[in-house]
Amino acid sequence: MTTRPGTRSIWISVGALQTIVSESERSADGLETGGILLGADSGKHIAIRHAGEPGPRAQRERYNFLRDLDYARRLADAAWAHDCSQWIGEWHTHPFGPLTPSDVDLGSYLRHLKDPDLSFDRFVSVIVGLDLSRGIVVTAWLVERDRFWQLSIRHGKDRRNAQSTAPPDSLLGRESTRRPGAEEHR
Ligand SMILES: [Zn+2]
Fold it and tell me: From the CA of 125, how far away is ligand 1's center (Å)?
């Protein structure tokens, strides 16, 4: 795995950003938290439309986080029904850490990228820090099979990203969306 400077950006809805920021504030207790990211990846554009909360059965630890898998799957089904949003990635906090994906994070993402049933070309990782002076710091990363890099974040109103879309061609005829798998984070 190598990193290189990112020139690409990602769009995130105000609602998704609000969920991430308000949930991340709970990590002031020193425990990680997180959830799934749902939206659209057209190849050129990536839009995060919805961010999941961790769910009632999430396991939060100081250097580890497991989201509630059933809860994540219900969110994914609801988002698919609502606006054809798909599971495109994950967000979680690093209360003490550097805001880069850890080796455990990358291993988890790579398992998804290599799973033929999920048909991921890339995976979005949002990592959130709590900084005493700057408050909540949100970073976004794009992970491919052999590299990852940081993305700049755009947010705000953007009809092209926020509006409902038809399913991408690859999903036409499919009854359901890509279903979130188990995740492991550090
Ligand atoms: Zn992590």
Answer: 9
**C-alpha of residue 52 to centroid of ligand 1, in Å:** 16
Cβ atoms within 10 A of the Cβ of 30, count?
11
Whole-prediction pTM? 0.86
Q: How many residues does the chain have?
A: 186
Alpha-carbon separation of residue 156 from 25, 43, 48, 136 (angstroms): 21, 21, 11, 18
| Residue 72 to residue 87: CA distance in whole angstroms | 9
For ligand 1, a single-atom ion, which residues have Cβ within 5 Å? 102, 105, 185
Amino acid sitting at position 32? E
**Residues 4-53 pLDDT 10s:** 544 489 999 999 999 999 999 999 898 999 999 999 998 888 999 999 99
Domains located in the chain, CATH noted: 2-162 (3.40.140.10)
